[in-house]
Amino acid sequence: MSLLSLSDFRVSYGGIKAVKGVSLTVEYGEVIALIGSNGAGKTTLLKAICGLLKFEGNLKLDNNQIKNLRCDQLVKRGLSMVPEGRGIFGRLTVSENILMGAFLRKDKITVRRDISQVYEMFPRLAERRGQVAGTLSGGEQQMLAIGRALMGRPKLLLLDEPSMGLAPIMVEKIFEVIHQISISNVTILLVEQNAKLALEFASRAYVMESGSISLQGRSSELMKDSLVKQAYLGE
Ligand code: ATP
Asked: Strand 187-192 vs strand 31-35: parallel, antiparallel, or unpaired?
């Protein structure tokens, strides 16, 4: 049984078909990458999985068929997303943003414990907990977005372009943290423009082109694929 499974998954913007019949599975504990060029439909796919866009076809989470559920209902079922561009609340402080990630939770004591864990994971955020989030650096905002998503206690974390716009050293730090998260029993579906980084990090990957999956397999195999090398690894 897969944690997430999509079949014949379709998303349109009016008449424009952005995702055209995608099938994809994510097993418990896996780190899966979804790569593809600009406009391939990766963000659209993630948004539809987490309830931000309507879709047609099938989506199963934990073997339950999901249809027309809102984001908050999906968060309750263990699905959290770190959106492209981070989507933090710029006028709220770091600590208020983190608390927003737990707004559906009633378990006050464990919420407090989870906040401490987020600060342990991101000491930089702890130092800046009173700072207005809009004034954080790009890397700090990415940390905050991840920390906030973790407050939903996800089984499955969707990450959209976590490396975007960050200096290499910060990318390294963010991926170190994503690795820690993955070994703490959180399954990860990672969308990345940086195919090399994504394939080195994930055990399996899907390649998306013009709204469809064109290739899939173990990352180590895909890295050897001549098409992947040429189109995505710049070799
Ligand atoms: P990128 O890596 O550049 O973010 P992507 O693979 O995430 O690309 P999407 O953002 O999902 O691609 O876009 C897929 C297609 O859907 C593109 O052709 C895009 O122009 C189109 N699209 C995205 N958002 C909208 C929208 N709100 N209305 C109409 N078309 C859209």
From this structure: parallel
Give the span between the Cα atoms of 162 and 144, in whole angstroms. 11
Backbone angles phi, psi at 227, to 5 degrees: -65, -45
Distance from C-alpha of 180 to C-alpha of 216, rounded to nearest angstrom = 25
For ligand 1, pick from 37, 43, 208 the residue to mutate: most ligand atoms within 8 Å of CB: 43
Q: Which pair of structure tokens corresponds to residue 148?
A: 């906030």
pTM, two decimals, is 0.93
Number of C-alpha atoms within 13 angstroms, CB side, residue 138?
A: 13
Residue 178 C-alpha to ligand 1 middle, in angstroms? 25
128-180 per-position pLDDT tens digit: 999 999 999 989 999 999 999 999 999 999 999 999 888 899 999 999 999 99
Token match 């939770």: residue?
A: 105
Instruction: Decide if 94 contacts 136 (C-beta within 8 A).
Output: yes
In the reported structure, the alpha carbon of residue 107 is separated from the centroid of ligand 1 by a whole-number distance in angstroms of 38
Q: In whole angstroms, how large is the CA radius of gyration of the chain?
A: 17
Q: How far apart are CA 62 and CA 4, in angstroms?
A: 6
DSSP letters spanning 104-167 = T---HHHHHHHHHHHHHH-HHHHHTTTSBGGGS-HHHHHHHHHHHHHTT--SEEEEE-TTTT--
For the stretch 133-165, what's the b/e string if a residue is b when 16 or more beta carbons lie within 10 angstroms of its beta carbon? beebeebbbbbbbbbbbbbbbbbbbbbbbbbbe
